[in-house]
Design brief:
binds iron/sulfur cluster; single chain; alpha/beta; 6-stranded parallel beta sheet; globular
Length: 396
């Protein structure tokens, strides 16, 4: 393969086919793509060894598997170094599992992802890719449930068996069955996450979410990890700092235990995630990314961005497993100072940040660009329909 990278896991893929140059459409570099391939290969090797050993998957092992898969989904990790560090962790866990097994299993090597990307049989390539990308998405939800204390041994086992199949299974009927099983297990993962979220934060209710940013220091939180939202709200409670959701964190307002318990969860900032580079430019506030949503940063706001959990971006301050958000809170007090009250309740006057949210029927954008994009979407839909027909024909 002559390409500098190969990635076709999301709807943004170049020409609706694959990103193959120095960087993907999402901004992921070829170096990061390579690191993520190595990580995925290590996870497949680890999962295979765990199955060979035959013992129940231990919670730290399951956490590592979900963390690794989650790291490789779109708009999560742009830093090849942190991806490589996670791969090291997987190797270490694999060595430990191997050393403690009795009788000793046969050693298992990492899987070379080039074998999948260059798989000559298009059916097998499609079916295995479908399973892998499904697992990556499921891992994100499973991870969120796990940090809230909800786990499911069958889901953990499925991650392992499906990962092993990507490397080993040649029987296309069995792979097609695995695709169906992946769909079924994805429902189970979503049910698990729903149980975790409602168990921790109550049943979601319809609420009105203000779009006005009030005077005073504030923090914007993006992504969809409600545990991170809760930790941030706890640590900002009583400090005169408001918190605004962004993008996929919007549903947090519906959960009573977040909305009612924390009145400083004030509203939502911004529109769709893909508008963030423009919208974050001139807000006087730090932005915390908790999961997938982060786009390549512009210098105008890069020094106000923080990451946590599996999110990583070169040069950005990362909040570790202890979820100590002090650096984010300190930044809110510095950058928001001129906009209102300080963290200790001091009133310095200031201004209200007005969001430029217009919802109307007028189109002021790039008509030619929209047309091009629409044609690309049509082509993608056509390709997808063709693939589906092909899969159904194969199933018959
Ligand atoms: S994740 Fe990034 S590199 Fe991969 S297909 Fe999507 S846009 Fe391209």
């Amino acid at each position: 393969m002559d390409e500098m990278m190969f990635c076709y896991q999301c709807e943004q893929a170049a020409n609706c086919t694959a990103c193959t140059g120095k960087a993907g459409v999402c901004g992921k570099s070829a170096e990061t793509a390579d690191a993520q391939d190595k990580l995925t290969g290590a996870l497949i090797g680890f999962a295979t060894l765990l199955l060979d050993i035959g013992r129940p998957i231990q919670p730290p092992q399951a956490l590592l598997l979900t963390e690794g898969l989650f790291t490789t989904i779109t708009n999560v990790d742009f830093d090849p170094q942190t991806v490589a560090q996670l791969t090291d962790k997987v190797w270490k866990a694999k060595q430990e599992a191997f050393a403690s097994a009795s009788p000793a299993p046969a050693p298992v090597s990492d899987y070379d992802m080039q074998k999948l990307w260059q798989e000559p049989d298009p059916d097998r390539k499609s079916l295995c890719s479908f399973v892998l990308f499904g697992l990556r998405g499921m891992a994100a939800y499973s991870y969120h449930a796990r940090v809230l204390g909800y786990t499911d041994g069958e889901i953990d086992l499925f991650f392992c068996t499906a990962l092993r199949a990507i490397a080993q299974e040649r029987d296309k009927d069995k792979l097609f069955q695995l695709v169906e099983d992946t769909g079924r297990m994805a429902y189970r993962v979503m049910a698990e996450l729903d149980k975790a979220n409602t168990g921790a934060f109550g049943d979601p209710e319809p609420v009105e979410v203000p779009l006005t940013i009030e005077k005073g220091p504030f923090i914007v939180i993006s992504g969809h990890d409600l545990y991170d939202a809760k930790c941030l709200l706890e640590q900002t409670e009583g400090k005169g700092i408001n918190v605004y959701t962004h993008s996929e964190m919007l549903p947090a307002h519906g959960y009573p235990e977040l909305k009612k318990r924390f009145p400083h969860l004030k509203g939502n900032f911004g529109t769709a995630w893909q508008n963030q580079q423009r919208e974050f430019e001139d807000i006087p506030a730090p932005v915390l990314f908790t999961t997938n949503c982060i786009m390549p940063l512009r210098p105008s706001y890069a020094d106000r961005v923080f990451t946590t959990s599996v999110v990583s971006y070169p040069g950005v301050t990362h909040i570790g497993e202890d979820r100590d958000f002090s650096p984010v809170i300190a930044k809110a007090n510095v950058v928001s100072k001129a906009t209102g009250r300080g963290a200790i309740g001091r009133t310095t006057g200031g201004r209200t940040v007005t969001q430029n949210v217009n919802i109307n029927n007028q189109f002021n954008g790039d008509r030619a660009g929209q047309q091009k994009s629409s044609e690309a979407m049509d082509k993608a839909a056509g390709d997808a329909t063709g693939e589906m027909a092909r899969a159904l024909a194969f199933a018959k």
